[in-house]
Design goal:
The chain is of the alpha/beta class. It has helices spanning 26-33, 48-58, 77-87, 96-102, 105-114, 149-157, 203-207, 212-215, 227-244, 278-285, 290-300; strands at residues 3-8, 39-44, 62-66, 90-91, 127-131, 145-146, 163-167, 173-179, 186-192, 219-220, 249-256, 262-268. The strands form three sheets. Strands 10-9-8-11-12 form a five-stranded antiparallel beta sheet, with helices on both faces. A four-stranded parallel beta sheet has the order 2-1-3-4, with helices on both faces. Strands 6-5-7 form a three-stranded antiparallel beta sheet. Strand 11 (249-256) and strand 12 (262-268) form a beta hairpin.
Length: 304
């Protein structure tokens, strides 16, 4: 089976509020290709003609889709998947409808709520202000937690795009990774351990490996999670998977509220895939080899 590992290239300059490292998928793409016997690795800016030309040259049976920011724009992520759907080419990961939904936090919360999955409430203090159409903790900093309306207005002013204001869920935080051939059959659960007064995962904590926020928010897969809580986390994450029509693999970020209910904060159908991080670390923590995971994704890719 011929596999084309197709990834978008990092732009020369990232847009406002972004680090260029957020868009650098080269290492992750190489990591995927390293365990596939008949793979071709191609990086593209994201022009439609450029992507179609790569497909025409390599004539793959399957695309391993790592086109997360065509033309340096994360908002075009779903468009690449839609292109593959349009031409009838098999590809890994979720389809365009799921990817588009995941970028719209208002719609996502409505869909999850409609399927009985708990999400943060509106009109509750303290609140958090975050971009409504971004991911990767973009636009979130230490001042995103607000205790009154004036603080909300100040937080709104720091971001030029649309924002969502919702309850800041202050309990334990977890990252639940799911993957499988026909559904969320396998899982790994890690807990984010906040230290030295840090209360949330900021953009700096995700991308600036040299800052204190990064050091003070490690993800621990050895943390003690009581069986009832673990069952609740898995049920909510699987509920999110089915509600959003996910395929292949997924990461769901959750926090527990004061009543002990796990609320879904974010649904990421394209989590980081580089060595030792994101979905790669999750599957290895669950006892899987990276080769086994990647081959499962390729074998279970299908037309959308």
């Amino acid at each position: 089976m011929k596999v084309l590992v197709l990834h978008t290239l990092a732009p020369v300059e990232a847009g406002a509020g972004h680090w260029r490292e957020e868009f650098d998928l080269q290492e992750g793409a190489e990591h995927v290709a390293s365990v596939l016997d008949d793979a071709r690795l191609v990086g593209v800016r994201g022009d439609v003609d450029e992507m179609l030309a790569a497909i025409a040259v390599h004539r793959p049976d399957v695309i391993f889709n790592l086109c997360e920011a065509p033309l340096g724009r994360p908002d075009l992520e779903a468009h690449a998947a839609a292109l593959f759907e349009w031409i009838g080419l098999r590809f890994t990961g979720s389809g365009s409808a799921t990817l588009a939904l995941a970028r719209d936090k208002r719609r996502m919360n409505a869909v999850l709520r409609g399927h009985g999955v708990a999400v943060p409430r509106a009109g509750v203090w303290p609140a958090i202000v975050k971009p409504a159409d971004e991911d990767g903790s973009t636009g979130i900093d230490l001042d995103s937690i607000c205790t009154d309306a004036e603080a909300v207005q100040r937080a709104r002013a720091r971001w030029s795009g649309p924002v969502i204001v919702e309850e800041f869920v202050g309990g334990r935080e977890f990252a639940v990774s799911l993957w499988g051939r026909d559904g969320p059959e396998h899982a790994a659960v890690g807990e984010t351990l906040f230290r030295n007064g840090l209360r949330l995962n900021t953009y700096a904590a995700k991308w600036d490996t040299g800052c204190s926020e990064y050091a003070d928010s490690p993800l621990d897969y050895r943390s003690t999670i009581e069986a009832p809580l673990r069952d609740q986390l898995l049920a909510a994450a699987r509920g999110a998977w089915h509600a959003c029509g996910c395929h292949g693999y997924l990461r769901v970020d959750m926090r527990c509220n004061a009543a002990g209910v796990a609320c879904v904060l974010d649904v990421n159908p394209n989590p980081a895939i580089g060595p030792g991080i994101g979905i790669c670390r999750a599957v290895e923590e669950a006892g899987w080899s990276w080769r086994r995971f990647v081959r499962l994704q390729v074998e279970s890719a299908h037309d959308r």
